Amino acid sequence: AEEGGQTFQDIQGDVYEYLLSEIATAGKNGQFRTPRHIIKLVAELVAPQLGGKIADPACGSSGFLLGAQQYIISQLAKKDGAELIEDEDGFKRAAVSQSLTEDRKNILADSLFGFDIDQSMVRMGLMNLMMHGIDEPNVDYQDTLSKNFNQEGEYQYILANPPFTGNLDKGDINSALKLDTTKTELLFIENIYRMLRKGGTAGVIIPQGVLTGTNKAFINTRKLITERCQLKAVVSMPSGVFKPYAGVSTAILLFTKVYDYEDEIDQIPTNHTFFYDMENDGYSLDDRRTKRDDFGDLQDIVLQYQERNVEKLNDRNQKYFMVPFSEMKSEDYDLSFSRYKENIFEEVDYGEPSDIINRLIADEVGENPDIELISQLRGGIVKELIRLKGEIG
């Protein structure tokens, strides 16, 4: 009976998520729903464990909290020897959450924390988690960048896709944030750094501009996540991932906090960073986002990240490689894939100019044409080619 009840709960959770996907439109605060397969990818890279506090400072409908929950449940099921089922994106997941004992369920319920500034989103997020077995979710109506939010060093894991809304009013920004900027995408990265406890890991989706911006605040943001954190991975994503809501190119940043702001840095925590250029996420990159027959790069990203190795990953012609910190620093901490990719231009031998002209003439009038007859023509491309041939000998 318990299993039947659990199956029903899984089904009603799926139905609710389907409804969310149907009604999700780009919100007034620059929010857009993160596709489920991208949430699953971020959860797989962050790899949250049972007992660690998990947060999303701009949680929307709580998709990332749910993704973390489902990842943890699947890992528990795997440890218990249960058979996992490969889902439509190639991720191994527990079909029914039998491994979620009352004890584990309570630990998990007390581990998930979401915040959002949109009250209707908070209600959706609460409902989403309740539909998935969390009776009293911790989802609060709060502006995590504002002066009245001061949760430093609280969380072991943060998974987020903060809104890229542009700028805030300087007077509203929490004074504990040190970056001299009003740009939300930078402030959220710094705030996530503050919210992480030492040793805590974040998986954050950001607009590509954060990787390359030359303004001082952009450089200082990248400096923060490479010099006070270990920047583990940068996964660039194609611009179609958030269609039809937005066409912006994005990337996933994966970093672990090592030093607080007040700590002296003994040794730079970032040694090498794993870069991957996702070209295909298993769905068409148009507005329809139709499921393709394969998983795209999703499973390869997880595999290559987990098996990353400095010695092996030094070929800059691949779609993934490792980049040393010293090189990133020398490039103003630029974190774009294209900055480090080596493009090899193969030299093509087209032959002598006279041979090329002969081929062009042959294309027009066939092999062995009557040159004398053609030379009497008043004009045209062939006459011009013959004249050119005469000039270069």
What does this entry look like structurally?
It is a single chain. This protein has 393 residues and is an alpha/beta fold. Helix content is 38%, strand content 16%. It is built from 14 helices and eleven strands. The chain has helices at residues 2-23, 36-46, 63-79, 102-109, 119-131, 184-195, 209-212, 216-227, 298-306, 325-330, 337-340, 353-365, 371-375, 381-392, and strands at 54-56, 85-86, 92-93, 112-116, 138-141, 155-160, 196-207, 229-237, 250-257, 272-277, 320-324. The protein has a nine-stranded mixed sheet. It has a two-stranded antiparallel ribbon with strand order 2-3. Helix 5 links the parallel strand 4 and strand 5. The longest helix is centred in the N-terminal third of the chain and has 22 residues, at 2-23. The N and C termini lie far apart (92 Å).
In short:
This protein is α/β, with parallel strands linked by helices. The chain has helices at residues 2-23, 36-46, 63-79, 102-109, 119-131, 184-195, 209-212, 216-227, 298-306, 325-330, 337-340, 353-365, 371-375, 381-392; strands at residues 54-56, 85-86, 92-93, 112-116, 138-141, 155-160, 196-207, 229-237, 250-257, 272-277, 320-324.
Count of DSSP helices?
Answer: 14
Beta-strand portion reads 15-25%
Alpha-carbon distance between the termini?
92 Å
Largest sheet: 9 strands, mixed
Which sequence of SSEs, written as H and E, runs from N to C? HHEHEEHEHEEHEHHEEEHEHHHHH
| Arrangement of strands in the largest sheet | 5-4-1-6-7-9-8-10-11
Cα shape: elongated
- Ranges where pLDDT stays below 50 over 5 or more residues in a row are none
